[in-house]
Amino acid sequence: MKSFVFHNPTKIIFGKETEKKVGSEVKKYADKILLHYGGGSIKKYGIYKRVMDSLHREKIRVIELPGVKPNPVLGMVNQGIDICRKEGIKFILSVGGGSAIDSGKAIALGVPYKGDVWDILRGEKKPAGALPTGAVLTIPAAGSESSDVTVITNEKELIKKGYHHSLIRPRFAVLNPEFTFTLPKFQTAAGAADIIAHVLERYITHTKNVDLTDRLCESTMKTVIKNAPVVIKDPGHYPARAEIMWASTLAHNGILGTGREEDWGTHKIGHELSALYDITHGASLAIAFPAWMKYVYRKNIPLFAQFASRVFNLGTDYFNLEKTALEGIESLIGFFRSIGLPTRLKEAGIPDDRFEEMADKLVATGPKGSFYKLHAEDVVNILKIAR
Ligand code: NZQ
Ligand code: ZN
Predict the structure, then answer these.
(1) What angle do helix axes 211-233 and 301-312 make, rounded to 10 degrees?
(2) Of 131, 172, 286, 323, which one's alpha carbon is 20 to 30 angstroms from that of 347?
(3) Which of 161, 175, 176, 281 for mutating ligand 1's site (highest number of atoms within 8 Å of CB)?
(4) Which atom in ligand 1 lies closest to the alpha carbon of residue 179?
């Protein structure tokens, strides 16, 4: 196990009717806030009203910025920065999923910064601070509710990029699993794939003697594999929705990566696909992860065999661990397909004529990933496997 510091101060408020606590949590930071959300699902399904009731009870003034789209864009971030400056706003509450939360985090970075916020987001300039943010989560997937990451697309340059900083971890996150009953099947499934991908980015490692986090990773993945089909069949199944919602946070709050070298190459491939084709993040990973695994598994066959045996309960062929390893990858593909996700680029309508372009963009600042260092030709090879 490697040495590490683990510090995740996001307060998690989990369970039925927890949105009633939003007002009192926000009140600790500000009397006037930016309420940031997506394309309208929160209004359609009554979440907006329940959050507003709680804010009004605490007499909090609310300026709204709706319209965040999945794969959130820089234009919206700049709009939010302008509003916050003009209105003297000191706190941002995002209600939604990774897109609304990430957009809120990027606005939070941009308000105190004098220059172009994209310079921070692309890693060229240091932040000058950040407004505090909070989240009411409506889709378990990205883990943004307690991560130190924001992922924004520069829609003019077609670049989708993740930016890490402890300043942007939300102060609190409200997780009411009932809010996820209304998710379309595809979003539920894409969320499940993203959660599993967040675990795999940490699980597939060369770090030795990480028994505890191996087991934590495996149980998180098993929980999603067990409960995702339940909620796809029965969207209002509270116990299963609750398991998935907590798994989404644990998968990406940092704990599963403690003491381990993490990879993250596959996420970067997913971001390239989303930047060019606007594919849903989780779906991009259901395609990219199995392809990446097929390309890299020989670097640590025993770990891939362990994944097959412990996560999918497959028998281990001790005379042919490679066979077990490959069966594990096929089981993961089978799981993604069973919940209605594409596992091939062509199933998502993505052609094979821009692989080099994506690969060059991905490695523009050097090779990516640590379990397997991806150079441009590796990215092209993985995309070819994913065709
Ligand atoms: O926009 P609305 O109308 O709200 O609809 C949304 C959106 O269309 C809908 N939805 C959300 N909650 C719903 C609902 N529909 C019905 N009922 C509900 N309760 O779902 C759609 C997807 O929402 P979005 O926020 O885009 O989903 P997700 O949470 O998967 O976020 C994806 C974004 O997060 C980034 C991804 O790259 C992507 O841009 N990520 C952020 C990370 C982070 N900050 O730590 C890490 C991840 O790896 C990921 O990269
Ligand atoms: Zn992700």
Answers:
(1) 40
(2) 323
(3) 281
(4) 19
Q: Is 141 in the pocket of ligand 1 (CB under 6 A)?
A: yes
Q: What is the number of the ligand 1 atom nearest to the C-alpha of 42?
A: 4
Half-sphere exposure of 250 (CA within 13 A, CB side): 17
Which structural domains are found in the chain, ordered by start? 11-179 (3.40.50.1970), 184-385 (1.20.1090.10)
Does ligand 1 lie within 6 Å of residue 331's CB atom?
Answer: no
- pLDDT tens per residue across all 387 residues of the chain: 999 999 999 999 999 999 999 999 999 999 999 999 999 999 999 999 999 999 999 999 999 999 999 999 999 999 999 999 999 999 999 999 999 999 999 999 999 999 999 999 999 999 999 999 999 999 999 999 999 999 999 999 999 999 999 999 999 999 999 999 999 999 999 999 999 999 999 999 999 999 999 999 999 999 999 999 999 999 999 999 999 999 999 999 999 999 999 999 999 999 999 999 999 999 999 999 999 999 999 999 999 999 999 999 999 999 999 999 999 999 999 999 999 999 999 999 999 999 999 999 999 999 999 999 999 999 999 999 999
**What pTM was estimated for this model as a whole?**
0.98
Instruction: Write out the residues surrounding ion ligand 2, Cβ under 5 A.
Output: 194
Cα separation of 314 and 335, whole Å? 14
* Rounded Cα–Cα distance for residues 336 and 7 (Å): 32
In terms of DSSP bridges, do strands 149-154 and 159-164 run parallel, antiparallel, or are they unpaired? antiparallel
